[in-house]
Design brief:
Elements: E1 6-8, E2 11-13, H1 16-25, H2 63-71, H3 88-92, H4 168-185, H5 188-196, H6 205-216, H7 220-233, H8 240-252, H9 254-260, H10 264-277, H11 284-292, H12 298-315, H13 319-322, H14 336-353, H15 356-366, H16 372-386, H17 389-404, H18 410-422, H19 424-430, H20 434-444, H21 451-455
Antiparallel strand pairs: 1-2
Helix pairs in contact: 4-5, 4-6, 6-7, 6-8, 10-12, 11-12, 14-15, 14-16, 16-17, 16-18, 16-20
């Protein structure tokens, strides 16, 4: 192979074809060629009298160049149509890195900090940047990999308690005390706050079932409270579907409820009619059972009796208005004059019949423990008006029974007697022997009234103007 080599200042210069061929032959070994020791001819054709030292130049192609030559032969010997080998980046568009390029060769850089000291491997920003808080995202300033990171000093971590959903048995266990407390204080908001602490999941209807079941075993005043509770819960705790689902379950459980509460169908019918009047459920709920219940066993009979009673309440004249008092007027909602009249009738029936238990039952049905002092007042006043021994004995027995069973408390008993003591002068205008009758009646009540009431009992002493042995003088008082 002939090569057109040139010698410039003692250095052999080869063309591109020869370089390509040598690199293909041995890409990993340096190529060296030693020229003869004789001096080449000079420029003018004769021997040059200046003898120059021959320099050896090693040709080491880069790995990229060698791979391009070995892997793509189309660039050699003019196959690509150019007529000579060309660098690969000239045809493929690869970026050429020069020797003096400042750009990093690695994908992620050289790990050096940026200008000004911010960023880079092993750094956390500019000096003093830890004092600057990013308002848009303050969490960026908290790097757990920072050697100065203190997890105890961070207050952004919040722990929330997860309450597991309750099953039916657990719901009954937790809800029953809440409803029992509601019967005492009557605050629906307090019940709502207590239920919000429980995870009822989709079992809110169980609260309705438990509340009505407990109310069936109590008085009408408690049933009125449960009706108010259902109305206040609608839209907050109960949805229309929950209320209907609860009543469905209660209707199916009527055979069991009748065993404890014989009037369960009527009571449940009142609850359903009141819920319709309060717009908690539509009237179609009652009509659905009227049209769908078929006469059959005991359960179907109880269900039909219940829904027919509810339908009768809804269809009566001004039914929706009257249903507000479906449980009657109970407790302190009644007028004072009405309560006084009922207590007088109670005492008169007791004196005529002598039935102590019936009198106690009628007093408890009034459900006004805060107004029992009026009963004591009317009873003592009746004993003073009659003045008879039998009447005083019966009234004393009634007051003693009420006091010993704590139906009438000591405070209510004291208030009733104190009212008599304070009004005794006015009572004397109608009952001249009021002082004598009161002393005799108090002597019969010594065993159960407080001692201070016995001591404070007023008495009118006989005034003496002339006494024996005074000589007819008027005695100074």
């Amino acid at each position: 192979m002939a090569h057109n080599n040139k010698v410039t200042n003692g250095t052999i210069v080869r063309d591109d074809d020869e370089l390509a061929a040598l690199a293909a032959a041995s890409p990993d070994e340096p190529v060296k060629e030693l020229l003869g020791s004789k001096s080449p001819k000079g420029k003018h054709g004769g021997d040059d009298h200046h003898t120059s030292r021959i320099k050896h130049k090693a040709i080491r192609p880069s790995a990229r160049l060698a791979a391009a030559i070995n892997g793509d032969a189309s660039h050699l010997n003019g196959v690509d149509g150019v007529g000579a080998w060309q660098p690969r980046h000239a045809t493929t568009g690869l970026r050429k890195f020069t020797k003096n390029s400042r750009r990093p060769r690695g994908r992620y850089g050289r790990g050096l900090p940026k200008k000004g000291g911010g960023g880079g491997k092993g750094t956390w920003g500019l000096p003093g940047s830890e004092l600057v808080i990013d308002e848009e995202n303050p969490l960026l300033e908290e790097d757990p990999h920072d050697p100065n990171y203190d997890s105890d000093s961070q207050d952004n971590c919040k722990f929330e308690a997860i309450t597991p959903p309750l099953n039916e048995d657990e719901i009954e266990k937790f809800v029953t005390p809440i409803i029992a407390e509601y019967f005492e204080h009557g605050e629906t908001e307090e019940v709502i706050y207590s239920l919000e602490e429980l995870n009822l999941d989709e079992n809110e209807y169980q609260v309705l079932v438990i509340a009505i079941t407990l109310a069936m075993e109590r008085k009408n005043s408690h049933r009125e409270m449960i009706s108010v509770l259902i109305s206040d819960f609608y839209g907050r705790v109960f949805s229309e579907v929950d209320i209907e689902r609860g009543f469905d379950l209660l209707l199916k459980s009527l055979p069991d409820l009748v065993l404890d509460t014989p009037g369960a169908p009527t009571i449940l019918g009142n609850f359903i009619a009141r819920a319709v009047a309060d717009d908690c459920i539509p009237p179609a709920f009652v009509n659905k059972y009227l049209e769908g219940v078929i006469e059959g066993g005991d359960r179907e009979g109880y269900i039909r009796s219940c829904v027919e009673h509810a339908s009768a309440l809804l269809n009566m004249k001004h039914g929706l208005v009257k249903l507000d008092s479906v449980w009657g007027i109970t407790g302190g909602m009644r007028p004072v004059k009405y309560l006084i009249r009922q207590m007088k009738m109670l005492l008169k029936e007791y004196i005529s019949s002598g039935e102590l238990e019936e009198a106690v039952r009628c007093l408890q049905e009034l459900e006004v423990p805060h107004f029992h002092h009026e009963l004591v007042y009317e009873a003592v006043l009746m004993a003073l008006e009659d003045g008879g021994e039998k009447t005083q004995e019966l009234i004393a027995s009634l007051l003693q029974s009420l006091s010993s069973s704590v139906i009438v408390t000591i405070d209510q008993l004291r208030n009733g007697f104190i009212r008599i003591y304070n009004e005794l002068d006015d009572i004397t205008l109608d009952i001249p022997l009021a002082y004598q009758n009161l002393e005799r009646f108090v002597s019969k009540c010594v065993d159960f009234i407080p001692r201070d009431l016995v001591i404070k009992c007023p008495s009118r002493g006989r005034k003496r103007f002339v006494s024996e042995g005074d000589g007819g003088r008027v005695k100074d008082e």
